[in-house]
Write a structure and sequence with these properties.
Blueprint lengths: L1 E7 L5 H10 L3 E4 L6 H8 L8 E5 L11 H10 L5 E6 L2 H11 L11 H11 L1 H6 L2 E4 L5 H12 L9 E8 L10 E4 L20 H8 L2 H23 L4 E8 L5 H13 L6 E6 L8
Parallel strand pairs: 1-3, 1-4, 2-3, 4-5, 6-8, 6-9, 7-8
Helix pairs in contact: 1-7, 4-5, 9-10
């Protein structure tokens, strides 16, 4: 039997993950009282149990007793019970934005500030996050991308490390993204903006891609960048990093950066057992 515990930050996508796993054939139980966790696990382990795949959702709605979860899970492991922990996470800024947009109260601080609730909950969950077998950061993650990650781990059974690589294009004139880890400047390449037939197109269009990649320096840059990331990624994984944002910038974020971001995504997406997303921040801006 495969037994998965899904937990994590409120607003990070736990409910969505539970629904997706249920659709994948898992028997799902959400928000079981903490005092019943051990009994639930014992029942699942009984002989002749016909349930083969189980997901148990746990979150801060369980109140202060949730702080006891990590100790209960330690005790279950000591008794020989096997289970996996999936921890759903997101950046504080993303969580706060989601709560403000939904106008929901934070379960940890229903009468206080959302920011305080997020901070307090992160402290509450620090121990269980360290115990997690998988961490999925949903910051900037699309629903279909989350499904792909869950399928990869819990349906296809691929080996998984918890690193999510977010490739992003942007324009320097609109500012460097605040949450990036690595920034690369491709303004040394010829700018398609000054070619009349390419000016209104973007790096998502074949004509712009061919123009940018016709420059030999584009290929050299891409080759060196891929080589560096292949060195860095395993070391980031070793240090427990779970999200890496790689940003490629040009002047306006429409042509060169978009093209190279797309190329990097294609080069890296099949080179490791990590998740990847791509996002073009400024592609819809009118300026170059």
């Amino acid at each position: 039997m495969r037994f998965v515990i899904v937990t994590g930050m409120s607003g990070s996508g736990k409910s969505t993950a539970l629904k997706m796993l249920e659709d994948a054939g898992y028997y799902c139980v959400d928000n079981l009282p903490v005092s019943l966790i051990e009994k639930f696990v014992e029942l699942l382990a009984m002989p002749n149990n016909e349930i083969e795949k189980v997901v148990l959702g746990l979150d801060a709605r369980a109140g202060q007793a949730f702080e006891e979860v990590a100790n209960i899970l330690d005790a279950l492991r000591d008794k020989g019970y096997l289970f996996e922990i999936l921890f759903m996470d997101s950046s504080d800024a993303s969580l706060i934005k989601r709560y403000k947009e939904s106008r929901r109260l934070h379960p940890v601080e229903p009468e206080g500030r959302i920011e305080d609730g997020v901070k307090k909950e992160r402290e509450m969950l620090a121990k269980i996050r360290k115990q997690a077998d998988y961490v999925i950061d949903t910051t900037g993650l699309l629903t279909r991308e989350l499904k792909a990650e869950l399928d990869r781990i819990f349906v296809e059974g691929e080996e998984y490390n918890s690193l999510m690589i977010n490739v992003m294009s942007f324009g320097f004139k609109h500012g460097i993204p605040a949450d990036v880890d690595l920034v690369f400047d491709v303004r040394f390449l010829p700018n398609p903006y000054y070619v009349d037939e390419l000016k209104t197109k973007t790096g998502n269009d074949r004509e712009v891609q061919e123009y940018v990649m016709s420059c030999p320096e584009s290929h050299v840059f891409l080759e060196k960048l891929v080589d560096m990331l292949q060195f860095l990624v395993p070391n980031y994984v070793k240090e427990g990093k779970y999200r890496l944002v790689v940003a490629i910038g040009c002047t306006g974020g429409k042509h060169r950066s978009v093209t190279l971001a797309n190329e990097l995504y294609q080069e890296m997406k099949d080179k490791g057992n990590y998740g990847m997303t791509i996002f073009h921040r400024d592609v819809n801006n009118r300026s170059k």
